[in-house]
Specification:
By secondary structure, the chain is an alpha/beta fold. Helices cover 39% and strands 15% of the residues. It catalyses: Hydrolysis of terminal, non-reducing beta-D-glucosyl residues with release of beta-D-glucose.
């Protein structure tokens, strides 16, 4: 494997995690119930009935995990704050004990020379807000802004970089449209208000974060380069429709102040958009987070409620999640965003990129995960290629530090640089951990 090309001076490197997937301690210190607590308690929703009751026990073991990050050599830690740990009912009375945990976490990160980059919403909506309609209810956007302000007032003297939402497309699509994630609704296109209210909450929260002294505010979206399955006009139209729903719906309003053409979905009008909403949503950003895992190939749907159907990449290697491994998709999406939005686009951050493979300790006690090393090496090189082609990328954060609770898959998918025995909580750095640490040391030599 040849040496990694040198990234620009000041480029940031880190790892990303989320609260529900790693913290555990779901009943500690007054934390309220989230939609994911309810979903995981529903029979048949999570593979083999796994729960996040302990997860990686990060709530109690964060010192051990910070030591791993220090050994890895990163400079940024992206984590999420659990909304129900701060507001057990989603709004109203603040749970001071919950804020105390994040206070301790931030102090420990700074003591280890790690920059904290908290995400305020990574899908764990307080159940009480879901009972009132969740993101279908416009009031949730205002409650989110209040929550953001409360957290920033407590941590803002030490935290400069904030992310409002993580992957609002996935939360809408998997949680409200298809029922595969919490809260488990199957509303298909009737879930579109969820997109708008999340973005409205982002815009309102951005203003509140800045008022509390935030230096940089980002939004993180998932992105996937799309391509038609064939050269037919029908497949090209299907790919364009999917791109409008996945990229356009969650980027155009934020960067350009307008929604894309959604007529392919029969959404010629969006009655849930109120006057001045788009001005709020388009509050200027300091960065746009890009989560990339795989490209998407679309064909025209023969029938059904959506105008497209997903097809396979038969020649590509696959991860344990059966996602195609296409490193050039990383370069493509970073360059496509740069070319599509031009001067309106804020600086880009790769806020998630990683792969799941079922590697475990061998007879020698080590975890030899060559496929993960190959994946990371090729995708990081693709980021460098995008920078050389004009993309303003400021950092790369891999998903993830430790094998965690992977939503509906439970503990069956392992994305971590560190293997976790979920019975004993023993952490074993994988070969990819050593590779990543070595790559960073070479970058800084």
């Amino acid at each position: 494997m040849t040496a990694m090309p040198r990234f620009p001076d000041g480029f940031h490197w880190g790892v990303a995690t989320s609260a529900f997937q790693i913290e555990g301690a779901l009943d500690a210190d007054g934390r309220g119930r989230s939609v994911w607590d309810t979903f995981t308690a529903t029979p048949g929703k999570i593979r083999d009935g796994h729960t996040a009751a302990t997860a990686c026990d990060h709530y109690r073991r964060f010192g051990e995990d910070i030591d791993l990050m220090r050994r890895l050599g990163i400079d940024v830690y992206r984590f999420s704050i659990a909304w129900p740990r701060v507001f057990p009912d989603g709004h109203g009375k603040v749970n001071t004990a919950g804020l105390d945990f994040y206070d301790r976490l931030v102090d420990a990160l700074l003591a280890a020379n790690l920059t904290p980059m908290p995400t305020l919403f990574h899908w764990d909506l307080p159940q009480s807000l879901e009972d009132a309609g969740g993101w279908l209810n416009r009031d949730t956007a205002a409650h989110f802004a209040d929550y953001a302000s409360t957290v920033a007032q407590r941590l803002g003297d030490r935290v400069n970089d904030w992310i409002t939402l993580n992957e609002p497309f996935e939360h809408m699509a998997l949680g409200y449209a298809l029922g595969q994630h919490a809260p488990g609704h199957m509303m298909l296109l009737e879930s579109l208000p969820v997109a708008h209210h999340q973005l409205l909450g982002h815009g309102l929260a951005t203003a509140r974060l800045r008022a509390a002294g935030a230096k940089r505010v980002l939004l993180t979206n998932s992105y996937t380069p799309v391509e038609p399955a064939t050269a037919s006009e029908a497949d090209a139209a299907a790919a364009a429709a999917y791109d409008a729903l996945h990229r356009g719906l969650f980027t155009d309003p934020v960067v350009l102040g307008r929604y894309p053409d959604l007529s392919a979905f029969g959404a010629d009008e969006l009655p849930f958009v109120h006057d001045d909403d788009l001005d709020v949503i388009a509050t200027p950003l300091d960065g746009l987070g890009v989560n990339y895992y795989a490209p998407t190939k679309l064909a025209a749907a023969v029938d059904g409620p959506l105008p497209f159907t997903m097809t396979e990449y038969p020649d590509a290697d696959k991860t344990a999640f059966d996602w195609p491994v296409v490193p050039d998709g990383m370069r493509r999406i970073l360059v496509e965003l740069t070319e599509r939005y031009g001067d309106a686009l804020p600086p880009l951050w790769v806020t998630e990129n990683g792969c799941s493979f079922p590697d475990g300790p061998g007879d020698d006690g080590a975890v030899h995960d060559d496929r993960r090393i190959s994946y990371l090496d090729s995708h990081i090189r693709a980021v460098h290629d995008a920078i050389e082609q004009g993309a303003d990328v400021r950092g790369y954060l891999t998903w993830t530090l430790c094998d965690n609770f992977e939503w509906a898959e439970g503990y069956h998918q392992r994305f971590g640089l560190v293997h976790v025995d979920h019975d004993t909580q023993k952490r074993t750095p994988k070969d990819s951990f050593a590779w990543f640490a070595g790559m960073l040391a070479e970058q800084r030599a």
